Amino acid sequence: MDAAHLARAVELASLGPSWGPNPRVGCVIVAADGTVLGEGWHRGAGTPHAEPAALADARSRGLDVAGATAYVTLEPCAHTGRTGPCTDALTEARIGAVRYAVADPNPLAAGGGAVLRSRGIDARHEAFGPARAINRRWLGAAETGRPWVIAKWAQTLDGRTAAVDGTSFWVTGEEARAHAHGVRAEVDAILVGTGTVLTDDPSLSARPPHVDDAHQPLRAVMGLRDTFGAKVWRDENALALATRDPHEALGMLAAREVRTVVVEGGGTVTTAFLRAGLVDEVHAYIAPAILGAGTAAVGDLGIGTMGGALRGQDVTATALGVDTLVTAFFQRGPQ
Ligand SMILES: NC(=O)c1ccc[n+]([C@@H]2O[C@H](COP(=O)([O-])OP(=O)(O)OC[C@H]3O[C@@H](n4cnc5c(N)ncnc54)[C@H](OP(=O)(O)O)[C@@H]3O)[C@@H](O)[C@H]2O)c1
């Protein structure tokens, strides 16, 4: 029964934005007889957390939640951030029990379960895989204190991202490019090197098909050369990362509350992140094309033997028209 309510809470959580500094959280409040009294989810930083949203939902229906159980995808927060502590909202509403699926790794907000227990509320952590999966990137960022890094590129069958003359429009077809625009709209920032800006002058906007008001990620350009005048600087939603050090670049992004960044190349910058062990996830769009020469998707990583290959986990392969998207998660290397 708990699993069914937690599954519903995950469904609610998925209605929230995957970008922004806060996790996606859902909450269902259930009476002892199984009646659902209220549901809520977090709609992004500065808006009510899932628990107060579910309490408000119950109130708006004239339902009393005293003694009921709140099922939450993440441990209720015990701190005042942009909004008040959820532990207080639950206590004031006289909730009887709380089941949370993931312990909060954020040291500022953690400890909510213990606070609730100290107030006599039966609060328990009940691990539930889908609740972890829905915030995999956010949790990864919270656990390491640096943004989660997705390395994305479009390559030919023989691993080239650009031809000898520097052209890379287009490696893949429309469906693959549309998919990549959808991913951009899910993240906080896109990062490219100065080389890509000077060669391609990309817009780095999120233009998923059939979406008019897609979330636009921060555009970040990494490297020492001046690229001002390029399209990425068309408005304030852009950041110069005047460094060649991936750790420093991520520190600058973290200072802007970036939790997930897509590193979109070129090969030099992608290689630097891989060498530093800072890539958590790879999205490789693979076109059935062969160039034979040109820029490699990834350069030398100092790996000399097959046993040293970086191996992905939780791999997916998705057909997108004639192309294939392969995604994989990579264990964190040296930080
Ligand atoms: N198919 C694809 O998915 C895809 C995606 C992107 C780009 N591309 C293609 O890739 C090509 C550009 O690739 P690229 O490798 O030349 O460009 P890049 O990786 O975008 O930029 C390289 C530049 O970034 C700076 N930089 C930042 N961090 C660095 C580090 N750790 N080490 C060394 N340099 C660093 C350096 O310039 P400073 O002197 O300014 O520091 C360097 O020259 C273009 O042809 C583009 O069309 C293809």
From TrEMBL:
The keyword Oxidoreductase applies. Keywords: Hydrolase, Metal-binding, Multifunctional enzyme, NADP, Oxidoreductase, Riboflavin biosynthesis, Zinc. Its EC number is 3.5.4.26, 1.1.1.193. Residues 1-116 form the CMP/dCMP-type deaminase domain. Transmembrane segments: none annotated. Binds 1 zinc ion. Pathway: Cofactor biosynthesis; riboflavin biosynthesis; 5-amino-6-(D-ribitylamino)uracil from GTP: step 3/4; Cofactor biosynthesis; riboflavin biosynthesis; 5-amino-6-(D-ribitylamino)uracil from GTP: step 2/4. The keyword NADP applies. GO terms for biological process: riboflavin biosynthetic process. Its cofactor is Zn(2+). NADP(+) binds at A154, W170, T196, D200, G266, G267, T268, V269, T270, T271, A272. InterPro entries: APOBEC/CMP_deaminase_Zn-bd, CMP_dCMP_dom, Cytidine_deaminase-like, DHFR-like_dom_sf, Eubact_RibD, RibDG_C, Riboflavin_Biosynth_HTPR. The active site is at E51 (proton donor). It catalyses: 2,5-diamino-6-hydroxy-4-(5-phosphoribosylamino)-pyrimidine + H2O + H(+) = 5-amino-6-(5-phospho-D-ribosylamino)uracil + NH4(+); 5-amino-6-(5-phospho-D-ribitylamino)uracil + NADP(+) = 5-amino-6-(5-phospho-D-ribosylamino)uracil + NADPH + H(+). GO terms for molecular function: 5-amino-6-(5-phosphoribosylamino)uracil reductase activity; diaminohydroxyphosphoribosylaminopyrimidine deaminase activity; zinc ion binding. Zn(2+) binds at H49, C77, C86. Substrate binds at S168, R184, L204, R207, E264. In the C-terminal section; belongs to the HTP reductase family. In the N-terminal section; belongs to the cytidine and deoxycytidylate deaminase family. Converts 2,5-diamino-6-(ribosylamino)-4(3h)-pyrimidinone 5'-phosphate into 5-amino-6-(ribosylamino)-2,4(1h,3h)-pyrimidinedione 5'-phosphate. This is Riboflavin biosynthesis protein RibD. It comes from Demequina mangrovi.
